[in-house]
Amino acid sequence: MADVMIRVPAEVRDQLAAVAESRGTSLRALMQDIAAETLTPEQIKERADRTRTLLAERFGHYVSDEESAEMRRKMREAAAARRAVLAEAESSR
């Protein structure tokens, strides 16, 4: 296994270290978990295509490009709202 050095600001390093410690794991293991759980754009497209096919075949619902774009927008908004809540909680500590 090859090691890779990734340069991040100290506050990012400290946050990752705190997350790893809270999970009872190492920073290396945390980064491996993050990499394993994070989808590439190709994987995201593949899953979306499979979902569209499943919805069409099993339920007769064909997801339009507009519906798909709207859902992505809503998901981005929800993720941003969650990050804002977490940031607010962190700053109030």
Quick recap:
The chain has helices at 10-22, 27-37, 41-59, 65-91.
Could you characterize the architecture of this molecule?
By secondary structure, the protein is mostly helical. It has four helices and no strands. It has helices at 10-22, 27-37, 41-59, 65-91. The radius of gyration is 18 Å and the shape is extended. The model has no long low-confidence stretch (mean pLDDT 92).
Record keyword descriptors for this entry:
mainly alpha; 4 helices; single chain
The tally of helices reads 4
- Output the structural class: mainly alpha
Measured between the Cα atoms of the first and last residue, the distance is: 39 Å
Low-confidence stretches: none
User: H/E element string?
Assistant: HHHH
Question: What is the strand and helix layout of this fold?
Answer:
Elements: H1 10-22, H2 27-37, H3 41-59, H4 65-91
